[in-house]
Write a structure and sequence with these properties.
The chain folds into two domains: about 120 residues; about 140 residues, Alpha Horseshoe (Leucine-rich Repeat Variant). Helices cover about 60% and strands about 5% of the residues. It contains 14 helices and two strands, in the order ααααααββαααααααα. A two-stranded antiparallel sheet has the order 1-2. Strand 1 and strand 2 form a beta hairpin. Helix 1 runs parallel beside helix 6 and helix 2 packs across helix 3. The longest helix is centred in the middle third of the chain and has 25 residues. The radius of gyration is 30 Å and the shape is elongated.
Length: about 325
């Protein structure tokens, strides 16, 4: 699949109009194309931003003019032969869709506008007081927010636009980039404590096995995320697992030593601090590590931590 075709399909997917038979091909293309993944991420970011903005209600004059123009166009339709011409035109359009994805996108947009005008027209001519609720796209999921409200003038009809949160599941190998991306999202503060603990355990085992536990420039690598979790996660169990995953790199990566040193000096949990002291013992001859251990062994308020730091300083080698 070419990128221009994929980007057209991304637009359709953003409006929920992408056919199911095209979804698999688009996902395969996205898995191997960074540029198109960036396009998809930009579209989703724009949708999230637009969802936060208030929806402007059209003025009564605009609605009245639109209805009048729609009435005129409907009256101009011939009484006979309309269905026949519609069937012929539809078959002709279908013959061009596979070779003209841009035309398909245009047709989707025209169909959306026509359907919206038709819905407004029907609501405007419906008798007042009719009960019941009509949903344009009923689906399972929790309603996340209301994006707009439109009331039909001179009636009790109200159209409410809203977004749903639909749960999904993805299954794959830990080496799959999309799986790793989801795992790193699960380690963020917005996830539940149980999810963060499970993710920290998985990533820790990957790093202990030295399995692609790198640090990327954007900080999204497994090792970088463990360092962030060791410093800032609110759950002591998550911080402990993050330290275990960083143990193998304490001697070769100064950033890892700095993260573990910060945990030793600032963490609120004594067990986490004791684990950090144990991890720093192999590199206690490093000048910055030794200075931190000396500070903790003499000034820390917790006698348990002071003793552990003092023991770690014993039999240390020359200062590096």
């Amino acid at each position: 699949m070419k990128c221009d075709v994929a980007q057209d399909q991304i637009v359709l997917m953003g409006y929920g109009e992408l056919p199911d038979e095209l979804a698999d091909g688009l996902e395969q293309h996205l898995s191997g194309c960074e540029h198109c993944r960036q396009e998809l991420a930009a579209l989703r970011t724009m949708d999230e931003y637009l969802a936060l903005l208030p929806v402007m209600e059209p003025s009564p004059n605009l609605l009245a003019q639109s209805r009048m123009r729609l009435d005129e166009e409907l009256d101009a339709i011939p009484a006979h032969g309309f269905l026949t011409r519609l069937r012929v035109n539809f078959l002709a359009w279908m013959g061009h869709l596979q070779s003209a994805p841009a035309l398909a996108t245009l047709l989707v947009g025209v169909g959306f506008l026509a359907g919206n005008f038709t819905y407004r027209y029907q609501m405007a001519h419906q008798a007042p007081g009719v009960g019941g609720v009509t949903m344009t796209h009923p689906a399972d999921g929790v309603i996340s927010n209301v994006t707009g409200i439109v009331r039909t003038p001179n009636s009790e009809l109200v159209q409410v636009n809203y977004n749903r949160i639909t749960p999904e599941t993805m299954e794959g190998s830990l080496d799959e980039p999309r799986i790793r991306e989801l795992l790193l999202m699960g380690l963020k503060p917005g996830s539940t404590s149980g999810v963060r603990t499970d993710v920290a355990g998985l990533i820790s085992r990957e790093c202990q096995a030295e399995h692609n536990c790198n640090v990327q420039e954007d900080g999204k690598g497994l090792r970088g995320q463990l360092m962030v979790a060791a410093r800032y996660d609110k759950d002591a169990g998550v911080r402990m697992m993050a330290l275990e995953g960083l143990q193998r790199y304490v001697g070769q990566d100064r950033r890892v030593r700095d993260a573990i040193t910060d945990a030793m000096m600032q963490d609120e949990d004594p067990q986490v601090r004791r684990a950090a002291i144990s991890l720093l013992e192999p590199v206690r001859s490093d000048s910055s590590v030794r200075q931190a251990l000396q500070t903790v062994s003499t000034q820390d308020q917790n006698p348990y931590i002071r003793t552990a730091s003092f023991d770690a300083l014993q039999n240390a080698g020359d200062i590096q």
